[in-house]
Amino acid sequence: MELPANARRAEDLAIADQCRLNVLWLNGCACCQRVLEIEVADLSLGAALQSLYGRVERCGGLNTDEGSSPFAGASFDLVTLYGRTPERGELTAMRRLLRPGGAAVFAAQNRWWYGRRRTASRAASTMSLRDAGRILDAGFSDVRTYWVEPSLAIPRNLIPATADRVRDFEELQAQDSERSPNRSLALAAGIRWALYPAVLFVATV
Amino acid sequence: MQNDTLLSGIDAQLGGGPRRWSDVVVVRNVGPLTTAVPLEGDVISNRGFNALLCSAGGGQKHFLKLRPIHHRLFDREATLTALLSSREGTRSLVPASRTFTVGPARILAQEFVAGRSLDLLVRTRHREGWQQPAAQVLRAAAPLWEGITEVVAAAGFGLSPGLSDTASLLADLDLLASQRVDAGVIRLLRARLESAHLPSVPQHGDFWPRNVLVTGNGWRVLDFECCGDVTLPLYDILHFLRGCAESAGGDQIRSSEPWLRAIGGSGALLQEFRLIAGPLKEEVVEAALVAYLVDFAARLHRRGIAPERINGRLRELEALPATLDGGAVRALMS
Questions:
Q1: Where are the beta strands (DSSP E) in A19-141?
Q2: Sheet bearing B212-215, strands edge to edge
Q3: From the list B3, B37, B210, which residue is nearest A18 (CB)?
Q4: Which of A199, B127, B136, B321 has the least CB density, counted as fewest CB within 10 Å?
């Protein structure tokens, strides 16, 4: 797993995993019997998933051809893909693997994150709120959308992506004095969404 | 799903439901709520997360602290906050709160008070004159320390009356000696701590400008997780005043002398300082300053804070004998 930008010690990795554990728990993903992680090298949920569920199955990607998939349909309670955009066929395959009541968790960098250059290679590893529509189109019945900061590796703040809650969050942040110049600049420019570096979706069947 | 259990459990306790997932904003996610992950010492002082909880209809908001069932600091904060909010003199200083359990989480729900931290106000509006708002806070918060002494004793959190634990301070000093603090300074500070008998006085433990909220209806003091854990006299007031000076200055402090002089330079602040210091003798106040700086630097070190962030604290300690010899504390007490 790649170290978070501000990581110095092994403890930082432990903290990152523990933060992500809470995110899964908060989203009702704590009582799953069978879990599949589609692994992305940089941001594998690794130890966090292992700690919460005991046993986790892993794969590098999903075969979109139903006939040659090693996994039976409707056999998982939770499928996670943390760190890159799911392809169109992959979304459908994830939906197919989930039992009724199951959930899929997707998370990736915000495509429009302030200060990041947009390149063709980055576009493949980023997501934005607009991807919620793609997820619903794949047959999921509901999608919860969060902004995450400061990073997917250490999700300290989890902000439901609704205008009211973003305002609530910013009111709380204003009580704190550690405000970056980027924040003031983005707020002044009216591009609030550019402040939040990552998005997280919890899609239910 | 468990999320529904969490929200319905909160709704049952607080009313104002039914809430949806989008009514919960997680604002400080730290350690595991669901499973025990062994991390020793002070590496993580908090486990779980804090959240802003909104009512379904957009009405009353709560600030929640969700912690694992057996969290070491949770019961202390929940109990002491409840006791302080039930006392006449301290009721207006702490947010009204209640405690309950849902699934694997112990939850402290406090009324959400809109406001700005004193730290932010000092940085943005009072850089030149932080002494005035600091004096106002100390005047308003004066009943707090009497209240803390009373409720810590009532709650029975193992406070032993008498003298503060000099042995643990000396151990802290040894810890700092290993961080390249001048050996001669360590000897001088050790002598100060050994000769002065510090009384044991329970403190808030984290009373600094960021934990003081300026609201439209006075001041609120937040974060009682360490309340009563620290029993060094004047710890809170020294931590608070040093914090104000640091916020106003914007730079790392490398000597105590300027901020001690700044206290003496403001009549109102000096009056509040003397009222809180009360009958303590000058040498006890000097030892209390040594104890505060030693304890706090050692605490940061034990928490695994990066050495460069503790460096300023260590340089301040090294300058302390000269500061004391220069009469900075004497000027406050005479």
A1: 35-38, 57-59, 76-82, 98-110, 126-127
A2: B116-117, B212-215, B218-221
A3: B37
A4: B127
